[in-house]
Amino acid sequence: MYGYINEDGSTASGSGGFASSYNSSDGWYVISINNVDYFFSSFSTTVTPSLPHDAICDTDSIGGTMLVRCFDLSGNPTQAEFGFITF
């Protein structure tokens, strides 16, 4: 499964079979993969923020969905476009 997520949380492109959104109150991106109970330690996932964003992104999970959080270089939460792959 792979995809490219816009800064606003919408899906720009990818393999299909997933939906994405941005949760502004919690400051994370939510990626729901169809028919998959995602738990971060059960998958190998890489997230790469796109330039010109100086961001670092990490992954987590809650309720079977993938969460992506991005931070600026000072450690403050930020929105950023990013690509991901998970398997």
- What composes the largest sheet? 4 strands, antiparallel
How many runs of DSSP E, i.e. beta strands? 8
The overall pLDDT, averaged over residues, is 95
- Overall 3D geometry? globular
* Cα-to-Cα separation, first versus last residue: 6 Å
- The percent range for helix content is under 10%
How is the largest sheet built, in terms of strand order? Answer: 2-1-8-5
Work out the radius of gyration: 12 Å
> Count of DSSP helices?
0
The residue ranges in which pLDDT falls below 50 over 5 or more consecutive positions are none
Return the domain count.
Answer: 1
Beta-strand proportion: over 45%
* Secondary-structure content class: mainly beta
| Element order: H for helix, E for strand | EEEEEEEE
